């Protein structure tokens, strides 16, 4: 029966196309796939095609929105009469309202459907990125509050409609920040096309807000730089400009607005990166192996020299930054302050480059396997690192051309030339180190944790039990006769309080000693490769933090030194700086996250 049933099955195409002269293979017989397998494979193929079609359609939607907004912004810059800033704000307000409506629909409708979120991407939305999102979002909200206050002070010469735009911006920023904080890890499984279109519309809106922020930043810096010349030309003429009745309030709103403005550009870039990861995760099904992978936690163990050197770089950088800001806000920065500023960079950048090169060599020497699992977050990290580095690299090449063509022998010019070359090399070496580290699988932490636990238990067990001693003493005191005088009771209470304080101090010393022994034990059990990688990563984290702080809070010597501005012209160099500087700030912030990932995996 079985032989007859097998003989009636249809042979597959491998057997039909076999030559007649070839001997039949009796060991294996190829049969056609079952109808269920063919049906399931066609369903999988159709699902992939629909996913690609949805991504293509949503991408085209975002591209058209960005092109439309860019046309409005370009028209505003080159033709102030036809297209004004108010027209651009109207377009952006419409987009922001649509994005807020979609976010509320996603939170209240899509995400609450049955089987909507079956998987969550553990790599998406790390805590440092979500923390920076909330920080930049809070500063962006405060920026709009300052803008509302400044408009209220000048209400006699400004339109009441201008107060509506910052209010819509506050609603959009707050809603989007909370949405990304709670839902950045979602792999949504329902309403794929609507979710993709909503995410891409939000990405396009953030890109347009970033472009507008760069444009407005260049305009208000240009006004600020030429303020003294304008005041001298307008001296003696009748006042046509909008004057502020309260000078103190105007100065507070203006200074706060200028100080908080760079955070708005960073907020838009962070939102775009997180929204893109969500867009890639729409309809994604994470395998069991990928979901069960436990990510190591951040532990400040096994590092000594990296934090010390990094802290020294941060402290010196803060001192240089404060001296530069005092000079820049009081009057025009002197030549000596520029020499000091660039000298700090010339000393720090080679140290960072050497550390990154050593780390890359260690990555080549170690025998860790590559992580080949599909990870949209890691792919985006690599793209952002390479793309954001183009901002500072492009500005450095413009500075090199300007200095070589003018006077490279001058002291300040030679410092700027060295700074530009070292900055390019530092970006390249650091990108190679971070990208190579992100593609490595983490070390096994079980043996290390076991050694640490045994060391902590041994340290605790070797200490005498002071608490039991104090308890036995208190029991002996309570067994004394009950008839006591008030003075004896008071002395007994004082003695017990003293014993409790003594026990608490001893417990604190015991805990400190246990933690110290555990730290030393952990550090001694690490291999020299892991020690070096952790030291290098932590040192580079602190260096990138200080290099993020200095340009973010107002130190812009690339524009204020005047060399490139005279060579390229005021407007051209302004456009180069305001395009490259936000990318440079974003690069430093994103490098911190990548270096922390390298540190944790080591």
Automatic annotation (TrEMBL):
Question: Topologically, how does it sit relative to the membrane?
Answer: Multi-pass membrane protein
InterPro entries, A to Z? Otopetrin
User: Which is one Pfam family of this protein?
Assistant: Otopetrin
The organism's lineage is: Eukaryota, Metazoa, Chordata, Craniata, Vertebrata
Which species expresses this protein natively? Apteryx mantelli
Q: Where is this region: Disordered?
A: 454-500
Q: Highest taxon of the source? A: Eukaryota
Basic and acidic residues bias spans: 464-499
- Keyword Cytoplasm listed? The answer is no
The identity of this protein, by name, is Proton channel OTOP3
Which UniProt keywords are present, listed alphabetically?
A: Cell membrane, Hydrogen ion transport, Ion channel, Ion transport, Membrane, Transmembrane, Transmembrane helix, Transport
Give the principal location in a single coarse category.
membrane
Work out whether the entry's keyword set contains Transmembrane helix.
Answer: yes
Instruction: Provide the family line.
Output: Belongs to the otopetrin family.
Q: Where are the transmembrane segments?
A: 56-82, 88-108, 128-151, 163-181, 193-213, 258-279, 300-324, 344-362, 382-405, 411-434, 536-555, 567-587
The entry's localization annotation reads: Cell membrane
């Amino acid at each position: 029966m079985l032989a007859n049933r097998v003989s009636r099955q249809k042979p597959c195409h491998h057997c039909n196309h076999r030559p007649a002269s070839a001997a039949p293979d009796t060991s294996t017989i190829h049969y056609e796939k079952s109808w269920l397998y063919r049906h399931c494979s066609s369903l999988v193929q159709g699902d992939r095609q629909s996913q690609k079609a949805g991504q293509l359609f949503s991408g085209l939607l975002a591209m058209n929105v960005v092109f439309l907004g860019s046309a409005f912004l370009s028209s505003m810059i080159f033709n102030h009469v036809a297209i004004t800033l108010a027209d651009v704000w109207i377009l952006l307000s419409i987009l922001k309202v649509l994005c807020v409506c979609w976010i509320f629909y996603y939170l209240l409708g899509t995400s609450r459907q049955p089987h909507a979120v079956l998987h969550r991407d553990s790599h998406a939305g790390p805590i440092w990125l979500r923390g920076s999102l909330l920080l930049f979002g809070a500063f962006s909200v405060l920026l709009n509050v300052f803008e509302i206050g400044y408009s209220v002070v000048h209400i006699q010469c400004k339109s009441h409609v201008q107060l509506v735009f910052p209010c819509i911006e506050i609603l959009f920023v707050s809603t989007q920040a909370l949405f990304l904080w709670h839902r950045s890890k979602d792999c949504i499984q329902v309403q794929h096309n609507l979710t993709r279109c909503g995410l891409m519309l939000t990405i396009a809106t953030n890109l347009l807000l970033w472009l507008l922020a760069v444009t407005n930043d260049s305009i208000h810096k240009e006004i600020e730089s030429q303020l003294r010349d304008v005041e001298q030309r307008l001296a003696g003429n009748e006042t046509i400009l909008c004057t502020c009745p309260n000078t103190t309030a105007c100065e507070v709103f203006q200074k706060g607005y200028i100080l908080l403005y760079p955070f708005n550009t960073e907020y838009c870039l962070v939102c775009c990166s997180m929204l893109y990861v969500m867009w890639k995760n729409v309809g994604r099904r994470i395998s069991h192996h990928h979901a069960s992978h436990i990510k190591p936690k951040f532990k400040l163990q096994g590092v000594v020299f990296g934090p010390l050197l990094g802290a020294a770089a941060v402290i010196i950088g803060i001192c240089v930054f404060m001296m530069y800001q005092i000079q820049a806000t009081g009057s025009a920065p002197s030549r000596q302050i520029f020499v000091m500023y660039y000298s700090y960079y010339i000393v720090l950048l080679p140290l960072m480059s050497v550390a990154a090169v050593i780390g890359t060599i260690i990555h080549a020497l170690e025998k860790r396997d590559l992580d080949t699992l599909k990870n949209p977050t890691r792919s985006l990290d690599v793209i952002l690192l390479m793309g954001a580095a183009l901002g500072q690299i492009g500005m450095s090449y413009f500075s090199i051309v300007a200095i070589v063509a003018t006077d490279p022998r001058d002291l300040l010019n030679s410092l700027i030339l060295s700074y530009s070359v070292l900055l390019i090399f530092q970006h390249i070496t650091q990108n190679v180190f971070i990208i190579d580290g992100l593609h490595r699988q983490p070390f096994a932490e079980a043996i290390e944790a076991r050694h640490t636990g045994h060391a902590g238990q041994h340290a605790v067990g070797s200490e005498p039990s002071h608490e039991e001693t104090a308890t036995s003493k208190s029991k002996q005191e309570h067994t004394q006769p009950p008839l006591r005088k008030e003075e004896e009771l008071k002395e007994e209470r004082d003695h017990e309080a003293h014993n409790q304080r003594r026990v608490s101090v001893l417990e604190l010393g015991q805990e400190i000693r246990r933690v110290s022994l555990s730290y030393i034990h952990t550090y001694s059990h690490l291999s020299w490769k892991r020690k070096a990688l952790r030291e290098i990563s932590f040192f580079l984290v602190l260096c990138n933090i200080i290099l993020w702080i200095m340009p973010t809070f107002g130190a812009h010597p690339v524009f204020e030194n005047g060399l490139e501005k005279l060579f390229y012209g005021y407007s051209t160099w302004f456009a180069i700086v305001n395009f490259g500087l936000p990318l440079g700030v974003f690069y430093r912030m994103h490098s911190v996250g990548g270096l922390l990932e390298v540190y944790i995996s080591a």
